[in-house]
């Protein structure tokens, strides 16, 4: 899986910056004022500062350390220490391919991002981190009851919970953690989504407890 | 890891206050050492009980682990009458000792990291200045630096241009001289003595020699510590953790002349402890 889900677009408002990880690569994912989303190596080419601590100025990402500005293509556009200088085009952040599908932000650090298909008509539910591995998470999904009944696993990541459905996208992180981006079926009401979201939280806790017990 | 050069330098491992509290067991160059005694009867030993030379200077206990220590650098201002000598405690930072020094030599970050104190937008421009390796004294110097500061010092009442001069006296020791608000003809002295615990962790001991008879001691220390904690939030988020000496790895600009000279100087001396070298 080269293209990985790093979260919901809903959780990344314009002018916001977040940190993510794909295939062990530390990333800054940020959204310009115009709504464009970029994912870069989380490292400023100047002095190596983590760009995830930076801030968005218009449609540029500014590094926290010396305020250098980088545009959406990763090219440095402004160096505050030399306001008159047109920065050499060689100063450029390492840029990765991003795609948006089903409200999910997908990143590929090795080629063009190709979102995985979602096997249902969906809406964004939530995103969370869990200290667990894939199998314990799947087990937790089958054994944490929803409205009095155990969910049924329909296929990898897809669960039937009564009339509802949840699809869980996994992105393995370091230190035995998983980043989960959860989608609900498109028909779920806000109340239905709130209940599914609570179920996700119970699954998260259950999967982590199993990890601790093991 | 190459400690070869670093072994023969001197490092601050305690100040008088720490010493008075009893023995301090600490790390220096990946080695455990214990500092104890009084300022005129010092003892530095390692885990096996071997003793190392120690001296009390600039408010701190200095030691060296090598067989042939170079002389401890001189800060003549420390003995000038009228200056207040202010040790500012210790700050633990998870970064290369060399990154800590390099950050101390950098003015371009003031408006972004020390916003409203040592710098502020839109006053971000770094005017041309001079940086050089002085072979006669084997130090890096940066001179003719001028920068707009909203509150240059605890004693400053208004913003204004501050003149700076930097001196790197050893790979882990840097001294800065800056115009001092109450006494325009003199310069305040602020130094950092970096104790390299490992290549990726250090204890930083800031120290000042000021003309400031007004501010309370605690206020001076607090001012300096606040600034240093802001620096720490940067230093712990730089990658790679070690300072790259290969000029291709990080792209400098004209404002980084001091940093360029510092890296070149380290490389020419083989001062690689805390550095990322091409062959590493
Ligand atoms: S490290 Fe990013 S601007 Fe200097
Ligand atoms: Fe600083």
Automatic annotation (TrEMBL), chain B:
This is Vanillate O-demethylase oxygenase-like C-terminal catalytic domain-containing protein. The keyword Transferase does not apply. Residues 93-268 form the Vanillate O-demethylase oxygenase-like C-terminal catalytic domain. One of its GO terms (molecular function) is oxidoreductase activity. The keyword Oxidoreductase applies. Keywords: Oxidoreductase.
